Amino acid sequence: MLDNVNYLPDALKSAEALISVQGKGAYMKSIALRVEWPTLALLFTTYAVWAGAVFWIAGWSVPLAVVIAALAIAQQSSLQHEVLHGHPLRLQWVNEAMVRPSLNLAVPYGRFRDTHLAHHRDANLTDPYDDPESNFLAARDWAALPAWAKFVCCINNTLAGRILLGPAIGQWAFMRGDLRAPSRRTVMSWLAHIVATVPIVWLVIQSPMPLWAYLIAAYLGLSLLKIRTFLEHRAHEQSRARSVIVEDRGPLAFLFLNNNLHAVHHMYPRVPWYDLPALYRSGKDRFLACNDSYIYPSYGAIFARHLVRAKDPVEHPLMHRALDDRTPPA
């Protein structure tokens, strides 16, 4: 885990900070007790926007409905991420009931929850075998790929490729892994997903939006999320330096619920999305010292640098011998 996970300033000077000046203990106690109204409000707003796109806007402009539905789908995925970390209510079964039907149709909430919480074992970040969200391959797996697959993987390591191909590649890899080693928990998650997805598909069929258009919107929603995950983590000898800070405060930061401050989120996963900017401002120097200044000023800068240029190799650059001595997952 991160070396500085217990860090929080004793006194926060920023007037915008919503964190108790009594310190981390008092603040964590306060979020354990409160109802997080901003998250609840955003959740219901997101569903309203989705319904408006599917049932109203699609009646006079299908392309516009696709764009707005895609935004709502991406927003719901960000809210699912909030829920799996224990927000917005203290009753987790209620939280999960509100987001279990995945508007993207592709990723079961239960599988997202389980793999993402495994991803939060920070010592394993970017490990091709032990981090379920790693975009790297082990040396032997990379060497075993045919030339065409290596080419596709290299394209996928550019931002443009990740946006265009990433959802399809990620879904294929995700489902292949589940099919290769299906546990009872995995099967139950997929069955629950199918049951929860049927009403969404039925509603779309009853709406003015064609099903094919909704599938495009779902894909676009996943593509938007790939902008966030493109360089969230890097290969680094120290686990605490593997998570990025993107100092963006624009529409994408809101769409991602401030998860662009990813190093902050990994250090404080129970802090709600609307408190992350104040927390970052209150201890910016310390956060950047922890993550070895892995920082970008905005998503615009990321587009400029990496739209058609890969940031990382596909083969993990630091874990060759360690990985070659281990048995790949089934």
Automatic annotation (TrEMBL):
Q: Which InterPro entries match?
A: FA_desaturase_dom
What keywords are assigned to this protein? Membrane, Transmembrane, Transmembrane helix
In the record, biological process GO terms are: lipid metabolic process
**Residue ranges of the TM segments:** 47-74, 187-205, 211-231
Q: List each copy of the Fatty acid desaturase domain by range.
A: 60-283
Sorted alphabetically, which Pfam families does this protein's record hold?
A: FA_desaturase
Any idea what this protein is called?
A: Fatty acid desaturase
